[in-house]
Amino acid sequence: MEIRTTTDQDHDVFVNTLHIPFGRFPDTPNAEGGGVWWAALEMDRNLMAVADGRPVGTAGSYSFELTLPGEVVIPAAGVTCVGVLPSHRRQGVLSAMMRYQLADLRARGEAIAVLLASESVIYGRFGYGPATYTQRLTVPRHRAAFAPSRAEAAASGSIELLPRAECWKILEEVYDRYRRAQPGALSRPHRWWEVGAGQPPISSFPRRVAIHRDADGVPDGYASYSLTEPDTLTVDEIITADDATYSALARFALGHDLVTKVVLKHIPLEHPLRWQFADFSAPQVSDHTEWLWVRLLDVPRALTTRGWLTDGELVLDVDDPFLGEHNRYLLTIRDNKAECVRTDREPDLSLDVRDLGAIYLSGTTPSTLVRAGHIRAHHAEAAKHADTLFRADRAPHCLHWF
């Protein structure tokens, strides 16, 4: 079997092959080659496994940026299009592609890889850990009233309703401002918007878009939505960095006539929206799930790049069984900056690289994984101390699909 990087000439074969493991057929792109989720593929970042002259597996990655705690932005590889033909499963094809890809991403100088897992049991063995979480709220219209609040009284601005085709450049600008302030958020490269790749509102599928403008008329938020059933309004996403604007857009969706329920997708777990309903139990929580999985490719660089709130030291004994690596690091944090060097000191925590990925964005506490039996704490205060150091001022959240 050969694993090789693809070229533009491989595009159609790659696309056809990656659909087979999922039992699907490629959609038809529009005249400009867009309008399909795979329209923004970067062929020089994709891999194909070939056996007996025939492609039997695919894997790819996008060149994204990931926002870390401390509003630090770092390049990240968005792993995608991973699949093996049903005829070649359980023959080591996936492991070989994942090992080849990790080596390639390191050679490109990338310190972090991320992905969305179609099956959560697959990627832990390759060093990925679940790092952000999301949920959806379903709200009956007759129970959607908000309680009076100071935030409502202080809110200002206006909402304008536009077709997606007329406002995607505004959406691009608003999303880019939002993602730079939100830990766990990924960039949406301009080409994605240009060719309509991904899911709504990036894709060109028909959507209504509510644009929120601040008191000066500047767009500072949006909600993308559609009527998915005769009586249901589904909001793809609400994007804004301001809580009052988020509430205004949610109210707009919840106040829509001729529907009996509103579905709000991709709500952060700790978002204050639920507390704003007059009836706290009105929103029905579902699809509480992991979203972004993180894999550290360069542990010292990843740890020294993110922001930190508390000074201290921590010795991490990190095992990476998939790549056959084992290293011990001294993490030292002073004045919100970190140094990370190899050390022979006794460890505070012993952990798998997948667990380091899970706690990296502060979406899961080290003590949770100690209690789960994933991380070993070598003394009584180690987990509590690690919780303090890895704490962030804002929970990570990602809603970009790729």
Which secondary structure elements does this structure contain, and how are they paired or packed?
Layout: E1 2-5, H1 11-19, E2 47-51, E3 54-68, E4 72-84, H2 93-107, E5 112-116, E6 129-130, E7 133-140, H3 150-154, E8 158-163, H4 164-181, H5 190-195, E9 208-213, E10 219-229, E11 232-239, H6 243-254, E12 261-267, E13 284-290, E14 292-296, H7 299-305, E15 312-320, E16 325-334, E17 337-342, E18 349-352, H8 353-360, H9 366-371, E19 376-377, H10 382-390
Parallel strand pairs: 4-5, 11-12, 15-18
Antiparallel strand pairs: 1-2, 2-3, 3-4, 5-14, 6-14, 7-12, 7-13, 8-9, 9-10, 10-11, 15-16, 16-17, 18-19
Quick synopsis:
About 25% of the residues lie in helices and about 35% in strands.
